[in-house]
Design a protein that fits this description.
alpha+beta; Hypothetical Protein Pfu-838710-001; 4 helices; 47% strand
């Protein structure tokens, strides 16, 4: 089933500031996750298999590569851990790139926050305002995302318009 997010990704020079703001807002800490995201070759959007200690998902998403809050249409499947799935995807589509990261996961209501330390790239913060069942709407998600950007002191020059996979791929 698909849902929409309004999301941002930004370089994060001060993860402690992000943690403090999330704590003062009584965010729920879901844990630290070691994730390996394998991106596959697809004609449109992005398809990745996320293998983590907390999150395990096959994720397809399509979004514009733009700076600032952007709409992402996400389809998510949570499989049982089975190496056959990765083998089938690899053989049929080919691997585009692999991204390895450490991720801290937090929630405030429908908004998910990540503090990511990505191999070869550095530290980032992500905000995902999620409308899982279609009841919130894009305008409200946009407002949530922008409000948390202000609270987390995310500067416009820190915003990233691409996925980690694009940042790792050679130019």
């Amino acid at each position: 089933m698909s849902h929409i997010n309004i999301e941002i990704k930004a370089r994060c020079e001060s993860p402690d500031i992000v943690r403090r703001v999330l704590q003062t807002r009584e965010a729920t800490f879901k844990g630290n996750d070691h994730q390996i995201d394998t991106y596959f070759n697809v004609p449109r959007g992005r398809l990745k298999l996320r293998e983590g200690t907390i999150e395990l998902s096959l994720i397809y998403y399509d979004r514009e590569d733009q700076v600032g809050p952007k709409k992402s249409v996400v389809s998510l499947y949570q499989p049982v851990l089975n190496p056959a799935l990765k083998e089938i995807l690899t053989k049929s589509l080919g691997v585009l790139v692999v991204v390895e990261k450490r991720r801290e996961i937090y929630f405030i209501g429908n908004v998910k926050f990540h503090i990511d330390t990505v191999e070869r790239l550095g530290t980032f913060v992500e905000i995902e305002a999620i409308d899982a069942d279609g009841t919130i709407g894009q305008p409200a998600l946009q407002v949530q995302c922008e409000e948390y950007m202000r609270l987390l002191e995310i500067r416009p020059e820190d915003l990233i318009n691409h996925s980690y996979s694009d940042m790792i791929l050679p130019p």
